[in-house]
Design a protein that fits this description.
The chain is built from 9 helices and 2 strands; from the N terminus they run αααββαααααα. It is mainly α and 207 residues long. The protein starts with 11 loop residues before the first helix and ends in a 5-residue tail after the last helix. The mean pLDDT is 87.
Length: 207
């Protein structure tokens, strides 16, 4: 999992929608109950995918905002939670773009990797909540990718455990980091070690 950097300002349509519907819900907005609601939800997904450089917030699989079956908006803090501090369902900083988590695996794929045991990302998270294995408000139990440091201190430990490339690091950097950001970003980063850290600093990586 890599650190995510979100645009500080919510998409324009979401701001307008929230101003007109301060107590609105994500479900109502996405369902198009109010004017521009559906488009506001689509804008949120599009901007989140763009902010994340086309990678799932959790597993870093390639996703596309134009593929609603395999890309959706995840609310890290439950959108159903109602309190005075935030409208969690429409809080831009609470929205992540994620893959389908395996929920739409083909029948053949499910024979090899049966569900729900092989669910991932928000699909696994939701299943764990439904089975009472994880509290709905999961802060403190799961890592929010928005709160990860840009340069974790445990990379040296990971390298000592065997996360080292077989080829020259510089060549691998050229191959995998030629465009931001490759799938499985964090795995590659761990494997490439200091070479990856140096490259990310050189391009002023923030998330």
């Amino acid at each position: 999992m890599k650190r995510l950097y979100k645009s500080p300002l919510a998409p324009a349509r979401l701001q307008v929608y929230l101003q007109a519907n301060p107590h609105g819900t994500w479900q109502a907005m996405q369902g198009g109950v109010a004017p521009d609601g559906r488009q506001s939800a689509l804008d949120c997904r599009k901007q989140a995918v763009q902010d994340q450089h086309g990678l799932c917030a959790y597993c870093e699989r390639r996703i596309s905002a134009s593929d609603p079956l395999h890309c959706r908006v995840e609310h890290f803090h439950p959108k159903s939670h109602v309190d005075s501090s935030s409208n969690w369902g429409l809080d831009w900083q609470n929205m992540l773009a994620v893959c389908d988590g395996g929920e739409r695996s083909s029948e053949n794929e499910q024979k090899t990797h049966p569900l729900p045991a092989n669910l991932s990302c928000d699909a696994h998270k939701n299943h764990a909540i439904q089975k009472n294995r994880l509290p709905e408000q999961c802060e403190g139990f799961l890592i929010n990718p928005l709160e990860l440091p840009s340069f974790p201190r445990n990379k040296k430990v990971l390298r000592k455990k065997g996360f080292s490339p077989q080829q020259a690091p510089e060549k691998l950097i050229e191959r995998y980091f030629s465009t931001p950001w490759p799938e499985f970003f964090t795995t590659l980063r761990c494997c490439l070690g200091q070479a990856a850290e140096d490259h990310l600093r050189s391009v002023n990586y923030q998330g």
